[in-house]
Amino acid sequence: QVQLVESGGGLVQAGGSLRLSCAASGRTFSRAATAWFRQAPGKEREFVAGVSASGGNAYFADSVQARFTISRDNAKNTVYLQMNSLKPEDTAVYYCAAGVSVYGSRSFRSWDYWGQGTQVTVSS
Q: Closest Cα to residue 20, out of 113, 90, 95?
């Protein structure tokens, strides 16, 4: 089992930055890949970025490539999403997810564990 708690969301102007954090607990976390997804009102949950269990490999959605970075500190059981050059279309609830043997998947249906989400709002 893995428990995930997101933090760091808020209101920011277009062009600004935010860093989201995902604090994890549970024995499975060290073996689990983690990812960030987001969901805007009326839209399906979409993949944003993922990182391997070791933190050595990552992949991104095309829409955030070169603007967002993902990292994890396994000593602190925390995953981060650094978001730069934010755009109004980045506005959504952002969710942290984890799963074993799912690294590389961009489908929310593949991931086993989820946090409660944190709201990110980007004003124009």
A: 95
Q: Give me the pLDDT at residue 99, please.
A: 96
Q: How far is CA 44 from the centre of its chain?
A: 15
Alpha helices, H only, 1-124: none
| Residues whose CB is less than 8 angstroms from the CB of residue 112 and which lie 6 or more positions away in sequence, other chains included | 2, 97, 98, 99, 100, 102
Q: At 81, is the pLDDT very low, low, confident or very high (cuts 50, 70, 90)?
A: very high
Beta strand 33-39 with 18-25 is unpaired
Q: What is the dihedral of CA 39, 45, 49, 50, to 10 degrees?
A: 130
Cα separation, 72 vs 109, whole angstroms:
22
